[in-house]
Amino acid sequence: MKEIGELQLPDDVRYAEDHEWARSEGENTRIGISDYAQDQLGDIVYVEFPQVGDTFNKGEEFGTVESVKAVAELYMPIGGEILAVNTALEESPELVNKSPYGDGWLIEVKPADSAELDTLMTRDVYLETLKGIK
Amino acid sequence: MKEAPGITGLILNEPLLWEKGKKGRRGFSLPRRDVDFCPLDENLTSKTLDFPDLSEVDVIRHYTRLSQWNFGVDTGMYPLGSCTMKYNPKINEKQARLQGFAGAHPLLPHTLSQGALKLMFELERLLAEITGMDAVSLQPAAGAQGELTGMLLIHAFHKSKGIRRSKIIIPDTAHGTNPSSAALCGYRPVHVKSNEQGVLSVEAIAEVMNEDTAGIMVTNPNTLGLFEKNLKEIAEIVHSKGGLVYGDGANMNAIMGMVQMGQIGADIMHLNLHKTFSTPHGGGGPGSGPVCVKKHLEPFLPVPRVAQESDRYVLSEDFPESIGRLHAFFGNFGVMVKAYSYIQSMGPDNLKKASQLAVLNANYIQEMLKGTLHLAYDRPCMHECVFSDKLQQPHKVMTLDMAKRLMDYGFHPPTVYFPLIVNGAIMIEPTETESKEDLDLFIEACKAISNEAQQTPQLLLEAPQKCKVRRMDETAAARRPCLAG
């Protein structure tokens, strides 16, 4: 498993306590899990998505991610409507491990409240939390 | 024996049955036909039958060789946490194979099944006594079905009072099947975190318990192997708001004869007879998950129920408030015979002693390995102890690698990566049936592996080396499973 210093923590995304990230892309927001989360879970073998059109509040469970070690719930870092899910993961769930912030994204949402993104952690704050966990 | 039991030796390969044999080979010969030829209805037959043609010795060698690749509790220590893989005395197998039991047909009339019915009736009374409950149904075929039964009972109880509730409280130290069972019954699981001591705090429950909550599912001891010491107070809170307390009895092996869950607030409890009461279950079955309840839930128990009518036993359906049947017949009867035989041959004092030794053995391992492995919660445990790979992480060695390496030493690995609240969990349940010498060998093996993790981590990363098959590609197996033969 990776040391803190080996983790990729880009600063163009915001982080949630449950290790999801959110990135603003135009009017919409892309959501995935952090490098720390994928590293802890190990090889991802399945991602269970919500339906496009579903609406969730911040903190609500929107799916699960299954690895060889465990099944983990996925929680909405912000509230909103599901616009798209990353169907490429159905065939290639390993993309979450290989590229957690790129091709391994999970869902795209239309935010209910665009200000919610700012309540999430910046890279530096998230890094401090991880140091607390490690 | 001072050495670890793991050693290499000649193992014979064995192909699939379909790759063996030769066209026309037989394992039996039938006498010449002396009745008229009578073909079956064509709708019931097929032109080709994909059966291999084998002799008796082909078949015997096939299964003997496969059995030699296997590892079970009859082979060696099997400390799979949360699973209670204890040795099951052979006397119980013998009783279950008695012709009167093994050959009984479930459709026999009760007049011809008095022995079986009496055994079921008496087993119900024994389990009620052990748990401190009033009534028992032996029908659930395994633990998870017992949980579902419990949820249906809770629903039936509230319904009988004209109440509808939508939530069930589930601690993060519960068994994974608990939230599933609640959800399957239509309840929404409300998760509650355990406190820094690894148990539920009274405040945490008081905060979430309300008039829309049907009850709580508690595993005691919990999946950290810790006793839920606040359970009595927690039960009072749940009861005061009209809820019920469900006790998951999967870890009953820690408290037989020591704690009656019925006395500390549980309204319903299931038992895993195959774990606690002696049925081999390494292959995934058969199970038996009786549900024990307090008086106020008895009317809702599944039917048919075994009842005593003057000098005979009958199966009665006459319980109008019952949740109904759970499956076609009465459960896995053979497991009940083994449980009855186990309880009767042990007696009350020895059942208690078994639990005491199970707890002692786990605490011995916990103390001896503390420092070698990181202990998740440093306080006396019950029947199992939970470590993690925190001390091995700097060497890039993980729980999985240590578990695989234990096989080379001749031990079945413990449960890994569960409970989920401990990162890289290693959950060891030695049970009461391991001797001190065997526990010491296991402890020595763990210490040796910890040294290897520091000095020769490659040994762990490439483990197992002595097994018939090496490290399996679990990822490929999960991503692209090959389910055909």
* Main sheet: strand order of chain A: 1-2-3-9-8-5
Q: Number of DSSP helices of chain A?
A: 4
Task: Note the total helix count of chain B.
Answer: 14
Tally the beta strands of chain A: 9
Q: What is the strand content of chain B?
A: 5-15%
> CATH architecture of the largest domain in chain B, please?
3-Layer(aba) Sandwich
Oligomeric category: heterodimer
Order of strands, main sheet of chain B, comes to 1-7-6-5-4-2-3
Give the overall average pLDDT of chain B: 94
Low-confidence stretches of chain A: none
Distance between the termini of chain B: 41 Å
Q: What is the CATH architecture assignment of chain A? A: Beta Barrel
CATH topological fold name of chain A? OB fold (Dihydrolipoamide Acetyltransferase, E2P)
Corresponding CATH superfamily of chain A: RNA polymerase II/Efflux pump adaptor protein, barrel-sandwich hybrid domain
Strand composition percent of chain A = 25-35%
Largest sheet of chain A: 6 strands, antiparallel
State the low-pLDDT regions of chain B, or none. Answer: none
Inertia-based shape of chain B: globular
Number of E-type strands of chain B = 13
The gyration radius over C-alpha positions of chain B equals 25 Å
Per the CATH scheme, the topology name of the largest domain in chain B is Aspartate Aminotransferase, domain 2
Describe the protein in words.
The complex is a heterodimer of chains A (134) and B (485). Chain A has 134 residues and is an alpha+beta fold. Chain A has one domain: OB fold (Dihydrolipoamide Acetyltransferase, E2P) (Beta Barrel). Helix content of chain A is 19%, strand content 33%. Chain A contains four helices and nine strands; from the N terminus they run E-E-E-H-E-E-E-E-E-H-H-E-H. In chain A, the strands form two sheets. In chain A, strands 1-2-3-9-8-5 form a six-stranded antiparallel beta sheet. The relative contact order of chain A is 0.24. The model of chain A has no long low-confidence stretch (mean pLDDT 94). Chain B is of the alpha/beta class and 485 residues long. Chain B folds into two domains: 255 residues, Type I PLP-dependent aspartate aminotransferase-like (Major domain) (Aspartate Aminotransferase, domain 2, 3-Layer(aba) Sandwich); 132 residues, Aspartate Aminotransferase, domain 1, CATH 3.90.1150. Helices cover 35% and strands 11% of the residues of chain B. In chain B, the strands form three sheets. Chain B has a seven-stranded mixed beta sheet, sandwiched between helices. A four-stranded antiparallel beta sheet of chain B has the order 10-11-13-12, covered by helices on one side. The longest helix of chain B is centred in the C-terminal third of the chain and has 37 residues. Chain B is globular and about 75 Å long. Chain B starts with 55 loop residues before the first helix and ends in a 6-residue tail after the last helix.
